[in-house]
Amino acid sequence: LNSPGLGVRASGLIGRSWAMLFASGGFKVKLYDIEKQQITNALENIRKEIKTLEQSGLLKGSLSSDQQLALISGCTDLKMAVEGAMHIQECTPENLELKKKVFSQLDLIVDDKVVLSSSTSCLLPSKIFSGLKHVKQCIVAHPVNPPYYKIGLSPVRILKEIDGMILTRIQYAIISEAWRLVDEGLVSPSDLDTVMSDGLGMRYAFIGPLETMHLNAEGMLNYCERYSEGMKHVLKTFGPIPDFSGATLENVHQAMCAHIPADPAHLAARRQWRDECLMKLAKLKSQMQAE
Ligand code: NAI
């Protein structure tokens, strides 16, 4: 394949998934990490995942598993990893000082064309990229985890800089209220998750909260006429920011572990099941859009 290359910096959970996604589109990918072992583990893990996806008919793109795997390699030299790349996707841990250091290293060795992209969940682009010579080439491309099953389909643009951006803010709002409800003894942790997975969550794979409002009455104006007072009344009862520790943490932890023990093998198996569900859901979505 005579395709432009992409560099993925850091071979953790998100880095691996980006690498698979880029390769599925036919791009050459080089994985770089400060820990050599992380690269080895990532390549091994990617090989297994791509093969499993192919066997279950869920591999993305038009290339075979072997063709995709041939596009992904590891690299322990940063300069070589980014040489000739058209896009560099940084996936280092969520730490401002570390990310600033990583981008200032890249700033010294990249050309004036490559896109420098951070996977950050919450850090502000102005903080990460300030002072860089190549600042105009910098973006935040925050993936929904796992990126392989979501990204590349529906990019959205954030119009103004804000802490936590959009998806993370909505996710944190849900997590906070979930935590408060458990903390106040109103619902068990497992029932709370059921409310989302079997209830509220189903529609959100297809329509957003604003369209939900529009459809749940005779249009948006009518929804607000009918429900805004009730919503404001309930919203005023929302509690403060939880501290995510203490007895409630222990309670939630125990409940989660009873369902999925927190050892690497159980977590990996459950993630694999989740990823298969997401891939099937993605197929259903594209069928429904075509109808
Ligand atoms: P991770 O901890 O699995 O991987 C981080 C990797 O960075 C490790 O392999 C580590 O060895 C490597 N690393 C550390 N310092 C480095 C350096 N100076 N140069 C190169 N590599 C270095 O972390 P994960 O979960 O993959 O997260 C990465 C980023 O993606 C974070 O900014 C996170 O906020 C963001 N993100 C994470 C999501 C998630 O659900 N895990 C979802 C969306 C974004």
TrEMBL record:
Domain 3-hydroxyacyl-CoA dehydrogenase C-terminal span(s) in chain numbering: 164-237
InterPro entries, sorted: 3-OHacyl-CoA_DH (IPR022694), 3-OHacyl-CoA_DH_NAD-bd (IPR006176), 3HC_DH_C (IPR006108), 6-PGluconate_DH-like_C_sf (IPR008927), 6PGD_dom2 (IPR013328), NAD(P)-bd_dom_sf (IPR036291)
Residue stretches in coiled coil: 29-56
Site feature Important for catalytic activity, where: 142
Pfam families, per database record: 3HCDH (PF00725), 3HCDH_N (PF02737)
GO cellular component, one term: cytosol
Tagged with keyword Manganese: no
Keywords: Coiled coil, Cytoplasm, NAD, Oxidoreductase, Phosphoprotein
Enzyme class: oxidoreductase
EC number: 1.1.1.45
Origin superkingdom: Eukaryota
Residues annotated as domain 3-hydroxyacyl-CoA dehydrogenase NAD binding: 11-148
Cellular localization per UniProt: Cytoplasm
UniProt-recorded Gene Ontology molecular function terms: L-gulonate 3-dehydrogenase activity; NAD+ binding; protein homodimerization activity
Keyword presence, Translocase: no
UniProt-listed GO biological process terms: D-glucuronate catabolic process to D-xylulose 5-phosphate; fatty acid metabolic process
Gene3D superfamilies: N-(1-d-carboxylethyl)-l-norvaline Dehydrogenase, domain 2, NAD(P)-binding Rossmann-like Domain
Record's subunit section: Homodimer.
Family: Belongs to the 3-hydroxyacyl-CoA dehydrogenase family.
PANTHER family: 3-HYDROXYACYL-COA DEHYDROGENASE FAMILY PROTEIN, LAMBDA-CRYSTALLIN HOMOLOG
The name this protein goes by in its record: L-gulonate 3-dehydrogenase
Organism of origin: Monodelphis domestica
Gene giving rise to this polypeptide: CRYL1
